[in-house]
Amino acid sequence: MTAGAPKPSGLPNHVRPCKTTPLFTPETLPKSLQEVHSTKASVRGVARVSRGVLRFERFAQSDDSLKSVAVEYLRSGDTNTIAPEEPHEVSFLEQEPSMSLHSNKARTITAAAAFLWAGAVIGGSLIAAPAKFQVADLTLPVALQIGQVTFRWLVVVELTMAIVMCLALTFGFLNRKLHWRSLLLPSLAVLLLAVQWIGVMPLLTERTTAIISGEAVPSSHLHLVYVFLELAKIAVLTTNGFLYLKSVGHTE
To answer: Which segments of 122-139 does DSSP mark as H helices, in order?
Structure first.
């Protein structure tokens, strides 16, 4: 890769070459160019690829951070112009950039798992669980026993979706270097699930078992806590699903 003259088409007429770098290879490409950097205010850049494949990523200022806005792959003979002060980074690829397909697959799978997980929680915990108490001929102990079985199967579905999501994100992260911020919402959903089943559910199970056995139990707000965590988890999962679905077709 070289940067500088000759001037390609598309640049303003007043632009003149001022510096040409040596021919960079994967071994000699400076570390500073592989990280986000920009030209000076009055300087435009031109990247020209002699051989191989160059990954060129553009960034834009978003609030207090930089956001990736475009990723281009330049091959032998391709050129790319860089605007003054435009943040960007470059890197050589050893092979054709088929990893973008991997990234899209990871995002699609993550979005699907998030929506399926949220749907299972809505159907099992917020609809089926309270609905059984509306059956007049169903005694409370029997309704609670049904609830225990329902939640056992629900957690199997939740854990399955969590594992699928984690595997997809790991695959995408390793192959496309997804930003760590992409992992925040999925991690929060897994954390909420852990709090429910490690911190709250054992207490609810103990209380439910006592009621089924005919014991008198004091009033408790544990169910409200559990419902609050369910609602928070649903919000996190649906937000995560829409964000990943929206990002399909883009690279980070």
So the answer is: 129-131
The b/e string for 173-188 (b: 16+ C-beta within 10 A; e otherwise) is: bebbebeeebbebbbb
Q: CB-based contacts of 86: which residues, under 8 Å, 6+ apart?
A: 38, 39, 58, 59
* Identity of the residue numbered 52: G
Q: Check: CB of residue 47 under 8 Å from CB of residue 34.
A: no
Residue with the two structure tokens 């004091």: 218
| First-residue to last-residue Cα distance in the chain | 22
Half-sphere exposure at residue 50, Cβ-oriented, CA atoms within 13 angstroms? 8
Q: Position 105: which residue type?
A: K
Ramachandran category for residue 66: left, alpha or beta (phi over 0 → left; psi -120 to 50 → alpha): beta
Instruction: Tell me the pLDDT tens digit for each residue of 206-250.
Output: 888 888 888 888 888 888 999 999 999 999 999 989 888 776 645
pTM, entire model: 0.55
* Three-state secondary structure call for residue 54: strand
Phi and psi, residue 36, nearest 5°:
-65, 125
